């Protein structure tokens, strides 16, 4: 059973080919295998000349909690403004300065584009989106209040971020005192 799950894992492939008019085209697609990429592009009328498996986006940089919080707020704002979901992913993904975040968002967008639910697309990345995040997105999709739940999630993540930074700043002073105390004790033990 575990082998089947690993075998159907989707990865990103970059491809090059020619369309019906003979014009050179290229792009990226998430699929479970190279044959699936070829079949999908053939159905779209593209003659494939080259397909290459891409390396993981994690090697190009890292995605922090701040990035996820910012993305959630931007997505919530766009959804409230009436921007379509796929277009929102496109705008946020292309406008992000961190290439790892842009890649993550474009991968999620391609999952949603191929018919996967938004919560299922987020569940593919448990390192960045916890169970609470995915479940709330799923509830918002089913109830038809995705924009409201995204806004609440963004507020929640912003508050968590603020609490973490307050804890870090509150711990700075005691830790610095302990380090200085250890240095003084070490100097006394060595030289006295």
Describe it.
By secondary structure, the chain is mainly alpha-helical. The protein is built from eight helices and three strands. A three-stranded antiparallel beta sheet has the order 2-1-3. Helix 3 packs antiparallel against helix 8, helix 4 runs antiparallel to helix 5 and helix 7 packs antiparallel against helix 8. The protein is elongated, with a radius of gyration of 23 Å.
What class, by secondary structure content? mainly alpha
Number of strands: 3
Average predicted local confidence, pLDDT: 83
Classify the beta-strand content into a percent band.
5-15%
Secondary-structure element order, N to C: HEEHEHHHHHH
Uncertain stretches of 5 or more adjacent residues: 1-7
Rg value: 23 Å
Shape: elongated
- Count of alpha and pi helical runs: 8
Name the strands of the widest sheet in spatial order.
Answer: 2-1-3
What is the CA–CA distance across the termini? 66 Å
Specify the biggest β-sheet: 3 strands, antiparallel
Q: Helix amount, in percent?
A: 55-70%
Structure keywords:
disordered N terminus; 8 helices; mainly alpha; 192 residues; single chain; 3 strands; 3-stranded antiparallel β-sheet; 64% helix
Write the layout of secondary structure elements.
Blueprint: H1 2-7, E1 11-18, E2 24-31, H2 34-43, E3 47-53, H3 65-80, H4 85-95, H5 99-113, H6 118-123, H7 131-143, H8 146-191
């Amino acid at each position: 059973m575990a082998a089947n799950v690993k075998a159907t894992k989707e990865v990103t492939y970059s491809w090059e080919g020619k369309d019906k008019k003979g014009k050179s085209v290229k792009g990226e697609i998430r699929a479970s295998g190279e044959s699936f990429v070829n079949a999908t592009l053939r159905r779209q009328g593209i003659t494939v000349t080259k397909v290459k498996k891409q390396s993981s986006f994690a090697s190009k940089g890292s995605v922090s909690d701040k990035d996820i919080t910012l993305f959630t707020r931007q997505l919530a704002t766009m959804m409230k403004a009436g921007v379509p979901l796929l277009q929102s992913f496109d705008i946020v993904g292309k406008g992000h300065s961190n290439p790892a975040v842009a890649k993550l968002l474009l991968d999620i967008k391609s999952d949603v584009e191929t018919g996967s639910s938004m919560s299922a697309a987020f569940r593919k990345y448990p390192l960045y989106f916890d169970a609470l995040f995915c479940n709330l997105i799923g509830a918002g999709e089913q109830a038809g209040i995705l924009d409201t739940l995204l806004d609440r999630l963004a507020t929640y993540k912003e508050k968590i971020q603020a609490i973490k930074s307050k804890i870090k700043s509150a711990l700075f002073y005691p830790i610095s005192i302990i380090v200085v105390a250890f240095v003084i004790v070490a100097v006394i033990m060595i030289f006295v």
